[in-house]
Amino acid sequence: MASPILIEVVNNALKSIAEQMTETMVRASYSTIVKEMRDCSSAIFDGSGQMLSEGANIPIHLNCLGPALNTILTKFFSPEQLQPGDIIVTNHPYAGGDSLGSHHTKDLIMVAPVFLEETLIGYSVTMLHHRDVGGVWTGDSWTVEIWQEGFLLEPVKLYAAGVRNEALWRVILNNTRVPHDMKGDLLAQISGCNIGAKGLQELVKKYGYEDTRQIFNELLDYSERLTRWEIESIKDGVYHHEEKILDDGYKGGPYTLKVAVTIAGSDITFDFTGTDPQVYGPINSPLSATVSAVYYTLKTIIDPTIPINDGCHRSIKIVAPKGTLVNCQAPIGCFQRMVTAHIVVDLIMGALSEAIPDRVIADSCGCLYDFCSAINMDTHPRGGEVGHRQYWGEIVPGGLGARPTKDGLSVMSCHVTNCPIPPVEAQEIEAPVLFLERSIVQDSGGPGKYRGGLAHKRSYKILGDDAQFFHTSQKSKIPPQGLFGGKPGKSGKWIINEGTEAEKVLEHALGDVIFLKYGETVTLVTPSGGGYGDPLERDPQQIAEDVRQGYISVEAAKRDYGVEVEPQTFQVVRSDSVRL
User: What's the rounded Cα separation, in Å, for the pair 126 and 395?
Assistant: First the structure.
């Protein structure tokens, strides 16, 4: 048995390798969504396909590579068919027959088997979100079938024994609107795989193959023990909750997600039976994405220092009926699976609020995407390679739910997204757009003993022609709910040409492509976070500080919290608070 110190040393070495893989992709990539928003991840697996460590920038990527690797090894390439210098690529959500491949077509996964001399010692795996893979539109529009969402690659060798498949390389680059970015990002992803392979080889060489295998197994067992201890601290029982998606009625919504969380000793089961069937649209979640959302949510409520590896997952069972919103089946679309994945988090938090009220948070803003493209040959003559079109946009931050001991975070990408905000300057340099506003929305956070995170207002003007605008958001009718007496946050909305005679508030939070003209503006007011606890229990001095900071108004302090604040000195004049 290895010493605990050596296990910890190896664990941190594995984490370092995975993080180096991710950082390599970020530094070498061409597209904004990777080099600025870090939408890529990596993982190191042992020779039997068990995940040892990962560099997951985006929480929805937690263990997203494990199901895909298992699909590749069991249904496409056995370990005996692999050799040094191979790199397998896939982006097919339904590869192998189930929805245990890539999360969606833009997420290309690469797998490099790692050899030490003739021995297969593990796998170096990367995932990178590519900006365009063909399909009906480049943005997040309403698709119905998987074929509308871009080219599909079942697992295939991009490199065989170190030799690139040039025919496949050309096929990929000829099926994207941005071949320049695609080429750069593919090379960045290959470099990430190579960095991981080199790091794993050096680690195994240092400690020896047999000793390293033993250390890996003990590390997995260690994570399992710690995870089971955490689950055992939760009271046994069955805990239910349900949530809505497409709450504004778009495409026949709202639809319902249901979960029953069962705690039985050190085992935990997430049963989504009763969730509505998959719909003809892109919001369906492949099982691989649902698994990632479940793992993320559990990780947020247990000890954050537990090493993330497959040992953490041995006590978890997921029941997700086939053909539902949480386990979609071919050939249905799944391009915007994050709409469902975000709600899975609120769903589980709501179910466990009865069992562990001190570990869960109120509802958050949900999934928010805003992408647009336009053409301006004078200011951006390079543009995209096809039609000189250039793109901008981001995974937009909003308000997160309040926590048991703290306010919710404001203007943050929510839960399973967590992408950094790309700089305004970077987007304006690369595309014909002028950003007009990025601000916090006063009085938007759900009132509570702990206030929900504040909403975010974002507005830009289009400085190109033939603009194509794509939008996705949630909770435009049913606002993010509070917990334990906390009040709901505020719903969001999309506005075209705000403040002009041509102003139009979009009817639905999610929709198909909208064509806009030069000079038109787009404004998004995001949802905010729900509150936690009775607002009358909030510290009056904290309310006064909120007024001073501009987070809440004098009027809202009195209306929502029963606290009168002098608007010049920000002193508490009178309070109905039970904490005064």
Answer: 21
The answer to whether residues 527 and 545 belong to one domain is no
Q: Which residues contact 499 (CB under 8 A, 6 or more apart)?
A: none
Q: Residue 542 contacts by C-beta under 8 Å, 6 or more apart in sequence?
A: none
DSSP label of 555: H
> What's the CA gap between 475 and 491, in Å, rounded?
6
* Nearest-10 crossing angle of helices 209-232, 4-28: 90
Is the peptide bond between 254 and the residue preceding it cis, with omega within 30 degrees of 0?
A: yes
Residue 274 banded pLDDT, cuts 50, 70, 90: very high
Say which residue the tokens 């047999």 belong to.
Answer: 210
The total of other beta-carbon atoms located within 10 Å of residue 457's CB is: 20
386 and 528 within one domain: yes
φ, ψ for residue 363, nearest 5 deg: -60, 150
Q: Which residue has the tokens 């201890």?
A: 229
Last residue of a domain, one of 226, 254, 276: 226
Give the dihedral sign, CA 418/424/430/436: positive
CA dihedral 339, 342, 347, 352 (to 10 degrees): 170
Cβ-based burial of 1 (10 A; exposed 0-12, middle 13-18, buried ≥19)? exposed
Are 209 and 189 part of one and the same domain?
yes
Return the higher-pLDDT residue of 226 and 381.
226
What is the average per-residue pLDDT within 251-268? Answer: 97
Number of domains the chain contains: 3
237 found inside a domain: no
Q: What mean pLDDT value characterizes the chain?
A: 94
